[in-house]
Amino acid sequence: MATGRTHRPATRSRGIPEATVARLPLYLRALTALSERSVPTVSSEELAAAAGVNSAKLRKDFSYLGSYGTRGVGYDVEYLVYQISRELGLTQDWPVVIVGIGNLGAALAGYGGFASRGFRVAALIDADPAMAGKPVAGIPVQHTDDLEKIIKDNGVSIGVIATPAGVAQQVCDRLVAAGVTSILNFAPTVLSVPDGVDVRKVDLSIELQILAFHEQRKAGEETAAGDGALPAATARGVAAGDSADQGPDGDVPAVMPA
Amino acid sequence: MATGRTHRPATRSRGIPEATVARLPLYLRALTALSERSVPTVSSEELAAAAGVNSAKLRKDFSYLGSYGTRGVGYDVEYLVYQISRELGLTQDWPVVIVGIGNLGAALAGYGGFASRGFRVAALIDADPAMAGKPVAGIPVQHTDDLEKIIKDNGVSIGVIATPAGVAQQVCDRLVAAGVTSILNFAPTVLSVPDGVDVRKVDLSIELQILAFHEQRKAGEETAAGDGALPAATARGVAAGDSADQGPDGDVPAVMPA
DNA sequence: ATGTGTGAATACATTCACAGCA
DNA sequence: TGCTGTGAATGTATTCACACAT
């Protein structure tokens, strides 16, 4: 959108593929590093290497944002940082609340990547009265009773759930009722949310299980009982790939504090 | 690099799509819950609802594993639990080491989902000499100096990196050199690994940025300057969707302890 | 020369819709 | 009759390869 570029919608139209959106943060991180080293421009090849993707994909991804590069030269680092930040909505800063201050919640609260990337921990919330008032990562923990007020007073629209699985849905319901429309769920449960609310999950156990699956292959077919064993086949540097889905309701799983 | 691969042996029997593999843990979790409630059978419809996917997808996923259902009836819960566990390689248990025992590492160490799901924390490793010997979640922390020995003595092939970004690559290199072939990376860096080593990332900041992107849209087109704004359109329960990729090397980012 | 931007080709994933088995 | 299993249809993502701007 930026300037008045009204040609083919292909450029800045509202149709950025999810897969591309998921990679923008990666590019942004690599670009930020370059920016800090005062590198003025990068080629798609270089940037792709730094982000761990291949250059064709990167160029295609950028093409959805617009034509921000210069043929024969590459991309202007600062300009791209700005464009991607804007596209991701990071030019404003998002107040976030973290609910469930166990080890995980504390780790999240202390995560340095927040402030620097458009997010601000507006509040830490926990159900344990003993924690109320105690500062974690410099921020005082507040009691769950005040959840609704905290959300409203701070205009919070993004919530992080780091509670035990048993109370996650209930916390989720309260967050949503109070106005939160995006949730990052670390509890190992499928959350049900109304339409219009986004849920993303982070789940240690799932990630490990996926690794185990590939690990098992690499280990050879020793286990092969009556299977039409397939030797190598997969030894590729799989190195990741997620996928989640969703019907009308919530989403999935995750790590969990003590 | 495990065994030889090179071409595209892409057989068929052993060809479970990545997207399906990524969902098996979800199904497994839902099935385990049913199993605990002594539910004997489930239909694809019911199980799909519990796992947060749609039934056609679930049936297609299961079709890659074999024909484990009964037409007109559904799936036998116990049997499916076993088949999926086996497919994921969870019938054996995987010793795992966690490197970097900050808040995050401690949270992971205390995660209950380990033991119950085929994983065992074989060791906790940290570079801080002051931590050595101190138990975290009941497991004594060991010093980084002994990393290689620990990996070898325990036959560890899966490592979790929860260190600050600055040392992640270095830790990764040592893990790989010592024999680890699967890595779950929580540090916000792209790790380079040789072929045959799988890397998966978990990155709080990236997840939040993806949420922010969608959140921005929902917020309306207030920012809309000369854009052919697209009003509602997105209010759907987007609710997730990942995607990562990879070239020849490693992968990406993540949370980070204090 | 060099490296972007992008149509066209290919690969992968989801959804449909229904035949066929219990 | 009810629900699985799966080909065919559709949708999405990645990769190729090259015209073209600088």
TrEMBL record, chains A, B:
One of its GO terms (cellular component) is cytoplasm. InterPro entries: CoA-bd (IPR003781), NAD(P)-bd_dom_sf (IPR036291), Rex_actinobacterial-type (IPR058236), Rex_DNA-bd_C_dom (IPR009718), Tscrpt_rep_Rex (IPR022876), WH-like_DNA-bd_sf (IPR036388), WH_DNA-bd_sf (IPR036390). Modulates transcription in response to changes in cellular NADH/NAD(+) redox state. One of its GO terms (molecular function) is DNA binding. It comes from the Bacteria. Residues 222-258 are annotated as: Disordered. Gene3D superfamilies: NAD(P)-binding Rossmann-like Domain, Winged helix-like DNA-binding domain superfamily/Winged helix DNA-binding domain. Pfam families: CoA_binding, Put_DNA-bind_N. The keyword NAD applies. Coiled coil: none annotated. Keywords: Cytoplasm, DNA-binding, NAD, Repressor, Transcription, Transcription regulation. It is found in: Cytoplasm. Belongs to the transcriptional regulatory Rex family. This is Redox-sensing transcriptional repressor Rex. Homodimer. Its main location: cytoplasm. The keyword Cytoplasm applies. GO terms for biological process: negative regulation of DNA-templated transcription; response to redox state. The gene is rex. Residues 89-190 form the CoA-binding domain. Residues 26-65 bind DNA. PANTHER family: REDOX-SENSING TRANSCRIPTIONAL REPRESSOR REX, REDOX-SENSING TRANSCRIPTIONAL REPRESSOR REX 1.
